[in-house]
């Protein structure tokens, strides 16, 4: 199993508590040339998707 596959699985399972934690891991592996440009880009986009902050819906009455 490659490091990229392992990292992708951890992202998909939301293993880390925060987006910052996994992004720091990706940054280190990328800086050490353990993952490619394409893998880094794809996983960064996946992190944004998986760790997105939930958007609160407000009703019209709450908005007023």
Written overview of the protein:
This protein has 64 residues and is mainly α. The chain has four helices and no strands. Helix 1 (3-12) runs parallel beside helix 3 and helix 2 packs antiparallel against helix 3.
List the helices and strands and how they pair.
Blueprint: H1 3-12, H2 19-31, H3 37-50, H4 60-63
Class computed from helices, strands and strand pairing = mainly alpha
Whole-number radius of gyration?
16 Å
Main sheet: strands, sense, barrel: none
Global mean pLDDT: 91
For the record, give the distance between the C-alpha atoms at the N and C termini, rounded to a whole number.
54 Å
- The tally of strands reads 0
Number of DSSP helices? 4
Spell the H/E element sequence. HHHH
- Percent in helix: 55-70%
The share of residues in extended strands comes to under 5%
Indicate the low-confidence ranges by residue numbers. Answer: none
Overall 3D form? elongated
């Amino acid at each position: 199993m490659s490091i990229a596959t392992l990292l992708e699985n951890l992202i998909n399972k939301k293993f880390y508590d925060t987006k910052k934690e996994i992004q720091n891991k990706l940054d280190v592996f990328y800086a050490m040339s353990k993952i490619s440009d394409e893998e880094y880009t794809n996983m960064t986009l996946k992190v944004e998707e998986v760790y997105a902050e939930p958007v609160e819906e407000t009703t019209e009455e709450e908005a007023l």
